[in-house]
Amino acid sequence: MAEQASRARYRELIKDFKPDSGHLLHALHTIQHHFGYIPNDAVPVVAQQLGMQTAKVFGAITFYAEFRTSPPPRTEINWCSGPACRLKGGDNIRRAMESVLGFGVEGTTADGTAGMHLQQCDGSCEYAPLVWVRSFTGHADGADATLQDERGVVHGLLTVPAAIELARVIKSREGSA
Amino acid sequence: MTAYDVLRQQANTAWQSYLRPQRTRLDVSVATCSHAAGVYDTLAALADAVRTRNLPVDIATTGCNGFCFLEPLVTVSRPDGLRVLYGPVHAEDVADLLDQALTGICARLAAGVVNGDSDRAAQLADHPFMKHQVRRLMANCGVINPEDIDHYLARGGYEGLARAVAMTDEAVIQQTLASGLWGRGGAAFPAGRKWDFLRGARNKPKYLVCNADEGDPGAFVNRILLESDPHLIIEGMAIAAQATGAEYGYLYIRDEYPLAVERCRHAIDQARAKGLLGANILGSDLTYDMEVVRGAGAYVCGEETGLLSSIEDSRGMPRIKPPFPANAGVFGLPTNVNNVETYANAPMIFRESAEWYRQYGTEKNPGTKMFSFTGDITRVGCVEVPFATKMGDLIRDNFGGTPDGRPVKAIQSGGPLAGIIPGKYIDLPLEPEPFREQGVLMGGGGIIVCDDTTCIVDMVQYFEWFAEDESCGRCTTCHGGTQRHVEILRRIQEGKGRVSDIQLMELINDSLRWSNCFHGQGAPAAVQSLLRHFRDELMTHIRDKRCPAQQCAALIRYEVVRGREHDADPSAAICPTNAIRQHDDGRYFVDDARCIRCDACRQLQPDVLAVTDAVAPPRPAGMPVAAGG
Ligand SMILES: Cc1cc2nc3c(=O)[nH]c(=O)nc-3n(C[C@H](O)[C@H](O)[C@H](O)COP(=O)(O)O)c2cc1C
Ligand code: FES
Fold first, then answer.
1. In this structure, which ligand is nearest to the CA of A84?
2. ipTM of the complex
3. Which of A26, A101, B232, B429 is 20 to 30 A off residue B532, Cα-Cα?
4. What is the Cα Rg of chain A in Å?
């Protein structure tokens, strides 16, 4: 029953998208925007709607860094991998946060509540080095996302000690490691 | 009155009351850069203060004017016509701003006067950041509300399109050619010629694609336009449609720019509602419409054929050329791909003229170009300057030089695939040719300045890692070659470099060149720069196992400064790996096996912790180095 309900929901979300019109990315973004990720059982629904093979949809999903195939952690540190951040010690920040959290970039805690994700520079370099902390409680299946929801809260001009404190706060808030 | 005149007249009324509002208005710059600076806190504090103090002011939004280093920016427009830009206005500055700026000037926060005169604040035009600048493309950035089409119209927007739709396609191409406009996305190909290819293509329908993938890390010139003046791009594309016969356009925006996606979608809807997109634009024969496609995080989708694949419901794999997009682009149909800034130049060429356009820049490189500068500079932001402006003038005057006045060691322009030049070339004129002569690319406008604290081996390793990470995987030369580069460079950074690595890297570079697209073909550039310009530093890593900038983690060591062994409590507390330990007598020492060289301790206690080279001092001159050892 639950499965049918979610299938109906996927279908409803992407009902306006058409085959051969360049709608795949938009459809996938729409699903991810509402569910936080692209659930496995949404893929055949998207494929059917757009008249594509399921494998091709999977192929596209896995090509892009920002489509997720599993639920996002509640709190995610998006680490900027860009050059301005690197020049200002961004890689030191990564190593320090990883050792506090006990997992690396693209890893999560065992219970999946906190995670770390590699981000590309969006030109916020005046605040380098920085991380964005994203919270995935707010915009699952619902309201329009603000820039804050989409990009997260910026922790900029980070020193390594400040990054360590931040990681410690997240670790204690999100419980088990 | 023409259809355009009607739109313009309505818009003028709206604009006049915007310029001289009945009551004071605060325009808050909402853009990706101000988001980083905490603009949402500023907005909340403003709204709160205005409500509780019951102030007769309005709050509105504007875009970013390139002064990213002063975000969050607030422009105060008063009924008397005085407009003053303030920044940075953080939440805690809101009280001061409201106390002083509504009746007088808040001198502490004033960046400059935009309109009118004041003896308490300088003109914004005299700000050092405005030196050398000519603002044509950026004329509206931070000046108008990017979500209000009337503002764009009142500032001369869509006038260029109104003229172009009255011309033949051939005349539009001629005028574009006469302006000398060339593509700003990297390859510098004349826009008019590309448009003419599409005009001559036989299949229909024809498409336009705008490349707003801006993937070069550290570059954000396109983002400034997309977020702060979206109609400029829409108008430019509509003019290209008139020139080429294209009926539909895709504006492909990278995933990292959600605000740009939102603003451009909104702008397209507004343009359509005013008859500036759709059937019979401005009463002419031109029928053209467009939509935004949001990317999903893939650098190689910036390569034009990767972009086409991505739009077509597929993995963003670059294709084998020919066929070229003008013959077989999206959905196999004729397509023209241009960069954001390329299209954005078209409106002024038609609103004014090709001769007017050529007033700035050089014979070969007419017009202006936007550049964003980041890295080791005092002010990070975006400028627009005539071609051939000296890069060093901008770094020194506009961007305030390096933070501590340290020497500029290297400059990286044009993205990870473009190469790196040493600081001695700081005064290169900003145009493609001088950069090409040094074996690098000027590129799309992102420039990264590195001071002498930078390890070039590490930066090159970063660029090669980026190239590897973003390779689509089609060509073995590309995905395998970049992977080998990363392995070798990381090994060198670990102190296990061999002299023979030089030859190996040259060999890899030779094979990378045989990749299908410019991603693989450009990947050798960073290593090439390392070998050509920074060989001494590389050899110090390889032979002496030493990183002169003391950045490579495996080649440095942390230690407690002699005499301060009892003072390291705070460092011990912050150390994420408990590497700062105590002897029985309470003296602290660094347990090297646990230390991950994150630098936290030294940042916290620079007098107590010190960095040294991990290995013994360089071997004496003349000591033989075994090949491969
Ligand atoms: C790996 C790679 C990434 C690219 N990324 C971009 C980009 O982000 N934006 C862009 O305009 N051009 C990019 N280009 C260049 C495009 O292929 C193409 O030359 C350009 O969009 C053409 O527009 P123009 O003639 O207006 O410059 C990239 C090229 C390569 C090889
Ligand atoms: S490099 Fe991190 S924001 Fe630009």
1. 2
2. 0.96
3. B429
4. 18
